[in-house]
Amino acid sequence: MDQRIRQDHRISEAEALERLRRLQPDDSISQKITENAMRLAREVRASRPAGLSAESFLRHYGLSTQEGVALMCVAEALLRIPDPETADALLREKLSAGKWGQGGGQGGEDSWAASAADWALMLTGTLARWRDADEEPVAQLKRLAARLGEPVVRTAVRQAMRILASQFVIGETIEEAVTRGRALEGYRFSYDMLGEAARTAEDAARYFDAYSKAIRGTPAGDGVSVKLSALHPRFEEAKRARIFSELLPRVAELARIAAERDVGITIDAEESERLELTLDLFEELSRKLVLGLALQAYQKRALAVCDWLVGLRRRISIRLVKGAYWDGEIKRAQQLGMADYPVFTRKAATDISYVACARRLLSAPAHLYPAFATHNCRTVATILELAGDRPFEFQKLFGMGNALYSALLRSQPAACRIYAPVGSFTDLLPYLVRRLLENGANTSFVHQISDPGVPLETLVADPLAALPEPYSPDARIPLPRNLYPDRANSLGLDLSRQDVLEALRKKIQSDKDRERLGEVEATSPRELDFSIARALAAFDSWTRVPANERAGALERAADTMGERMPELVSLIVREGGRTYADAVSEVREAADFCRYYALQARTHFEQPLLLPGPAGERNELRLHGRGVFACIAPWNFPLAIFTGQVAAALAAGNSVIAKPAEQTPRIGFRAVEILHAAGIPADVLCCAVGDGESVGAPLVADARIAGVAFTGSDETARRINAALAARAGPIATLIAETGGVNAMLVDASALPEQVVDDVVSSAFQSAGQRCSAQRILFVDEGCAARVMRLIAGALAELKVGDPAEPDTDIGPIIDVPAREALARHIARLRSSAKLIGEAKAPASGNYVAPVAFELPIEALPKVEVFGPILHVCAYRRADLGKVLQWIRDTGYGLTLGVHSRIQSFIDSVMREARVGNIYVNRSMIGAVVGVQPFGGEGLSGTGPKAGGPHYLPRFATERTLTVNTAAVGGVTELLARPLD
Ligand code: NAD
Fold first, then answer.
1. Is 868 a pocket residue for ligand 1 (Cβ < 6 Å)?
2. Any catalytic annotation for residue 737?
3. Average pLDDT for residues 262-274, to the nearest whole number?
4. What confidence tier does 114 reach under pLDDT thresholds 50, 70, 90?
5. Within the chain, what is the greatest distance between any pair of CA atoms?
6. CA torsion sign, 628 to 633 to 637 to 641?
């Protein structure tokens, strides 16, 4: 693949736009396009969509309406829910929000009875609200509802969903699809097999069969779209070698079956992190086979990809789309701290990119056959103008764009193809939601053309006119580094890029060759005594350094950590046994801690807090350092937690003796070096190395230590607490963050695939050696069997091994005693519980293969099992109270996950839970500084939360100052007040 495609990944939007502008039609042509687009748009707006059409649905229920959002939730979840109670709970909740009928929240020109779908929704919406209403029409419905009851409502809505689905999906099977397609004369077809990405080998095999069956059933001349992520459970850059050896032959096989039948195959476009891999795979496959490729214009790299395709000089058909994962792309880039977005932030920029790409694709008619997928009048008019008599086709989605394409075909002949989804109703849901998001968004053409409030002139205007001059990205979408208003966000490394992975791999390998990680000499009792004395002596001057200066040093340290990311990642991988992804987020978290506490210090320590009081008196409260803090960190976040504790203590004006865990001393040393270089004086911060007994215990027993910030096991925390209590002198502060028995609760409305993605990362990432890691899964028995099957399949796909290799998912257990304890626990479970599934681990090395067992609630462990072992318990809906009580009875309260589409379920779990961090519909690990302040309650810790607003004051002592300002002269502020 071309280097330029890599380089263009994160060029600035403005720079990308510069190139695209040069490929736009000139003014006179643009004028012609506008006229033609206007003609089409008038016809489209004048046509009334059929009562039952996808567009009429979107017209009523856009995403900016409460009803649209509620409907999306119902559409996404209803059909998969196995039991009637859960289905009713979902309907009651979603349909009681919003105003149904009268065209929903959007243009009410169509009567609410226009379609059966609308009618059923209106009816049920009103029914669901009947309890609180007493007006006459509602009272009538009330009586009706009482007679019919909820089962009837449920059936009506299910039926409505089916009707809706049939507007978006051409058939449940390929045979049905082909028959229905035949009725649509003048169109060719590209069939798309509905479904989620594969999570397991079994899923992938099922999709392979579905595709090959579809290809065999497709008439010559038509095509099939293939989603690579459906054909392999690990279609990701880190698994490149597997993809080439396992996925490539599967696609080649499908292409061969297709070629024999003269059926076209198009590789569908997916998330941007899969683009490079897709292109390399495509390049290899298209050497010998004829294949098509879908390309997204919203990616900044789109034009570079077009150039590359032109340069290949192979016979290729290309489907140019605008792109359907925009929201997800933005979110992912923000979460991973990417330097820039892979996509344009402005819709108009995407439209411009589309035109530029179209031009390129049309420039090589000998090789490339472009298909332009659009429902936008201006885009259609532009293509007609640019193409002249060169070969191309248009594509529309089944059920959409009917009015536009009728208008177009009335005025001139054009080759058109329908992208037609095939599949069952349950598989429809993700597709439907995607279409709702794409076309229900305010910026979408389909949405706007149905809104009479948007003038057609605006709608068909040249997108160039909508761009600011000079170009700037959409200000509502700040770059990831500017996500927070008051501090810089840390940047990550893009581990979905081959060059980045390869550079890291080489760096780690050369560091390994250069440096052997042997024993580190422990700090002796004399050295420790000396360090404490030095730190105590340094305290007075350090605490007088203005908070602003202390903050500045921490910010410099954060910058250095970002700059030295590869070196730190290498060290964390080698010494801490963490994978690349873990190590990168570790460095980011450490930098975020420094910046966050710097900000807190400036906000709360720089100026006194003035307090109200009587006239003639000034009252203020100031925060000061306490003295020497001992910061004692665990090995499992050797950089992040270590740095966080130290940065907080320093920011608050304390001097620090920092003790890294005995397993990871070098990482602690390196962090201290960075802090010293950033301006923290050497006697203010000292690193003490050694194990708990010989260094940790004497450190906390020393009466000169004013406070302890500890993170580790609750057993050690208790020992430290006892040691502090036994000391003479002032009572020390203790902040202890300890372990947890963390559970995730899943009800029957949750999406099993999403649940399993989140379970796999929560329970097994970092080999389960995170305090936040999930130990227990409580899953509703209605979906338990499916969830467990998926877990087993996903476990079989994990690679356990050397974290220095980029494709490793799960690294080693930190030391031999820890591994042996886990092995004993697994042995007990093997004889007493039911095995759900397990990964494979290398025969040698300190590994424990991730594993999941099913147990009854009584047999679940109430103690922390610190490794990749998941305990699964299927529960009955009626027993939710018992489950919540069990969680409370553990006494721990660190993290809790909930997966559900029903807010009342989430609310009831939240009401009962006594835990520090609750995560809904996502993984339960990876708390972000200042975003999800982290820490537990009960046996899980004392708080306050790390990375939260109350942490820093815990490291400080408070002093007030009261001055009688009337002592000299009188109450001047009373006497000097202005005259009335
Ligand atoms: P650990 O308790 O064995 O050790 C933690 C630190 O305490 C180490 O530096 C150790 O040397 C030191 N230490 C041990 N005995 C001591 C003593 N008597 N006096 C003073 N210091 C002593 O924990 P670990 O195995 O390193 O870490 C894993 C544990 O940490 C798990 O229980 C995990 O849940 C917990 N953890 C909690 C959080 C959180 O934020 N709540 C975060 C990470 C880890």
1. no
2. yes
3. 96
4. very low
5. 104
6. negative
Closest CA to 857 of 822, 882, 820, 828: 882
Ligand 1 probe mutation, 578, 589, 636, 769, most atoms within 8 A of CB:
636
The first and second tokens of residue 230, run together, are 């459906």
**CA–CA distance, 740 with 733 (Å, rounded to integer):** 22
- What pLDDT shows up at residue 121? 54
Amino acid letter for position 753:
E
Least confident window among 74-88, 117-131, 172-186, 471-485: 117-131
Q: DSSP label at 74?
A: H
Q: What pTM, to 2 d.p., does this model score?
A: 0.94
Quick one: which atom of ligand 1 is closest to the CA of 660? 9
Backbone angles phi, psi at 961, to 5 degrees: -135, 125
| Residue entry with tokens 């893009």 | 494
CA of 635 relative to ligand 1 center, distance in Å: 7
Tell me if residue 172 is catalytic: no
Q: Is 829 helix (H, G, I), strand (E, B) or coil?
A: helix
Q: Is the pLDDT of residue 144 over 70?
A: no
Give the active site residue among 771, 797, 864, 873: 771
φ, ψ of residue 710 to 5 degrees: the values are -125, 140
Partner residues linked to 395 by β-bridges:
373, 417
Q: Which of 528, 589, 629, 632 has most ligand 1 atoms within 8 Å of its beta carbon, as the pocket-test mutant?
A: 632
Whole-number Å distance between alpha carbons of 464 and 244: 41
Cα of 770 from ligand 1 centre, angstroms: 11
Q: What separation in Å is there between the alpha carbon of 740 and the centre of ligand 1?
A: 12
Q: State the burial class of residue 958 (Cβ atoms within 10 Å of its Cβ: 0-12, 13-18, 19+).
A: exposed
Give the residue with greater pLDDT, 234 vs 8: 234
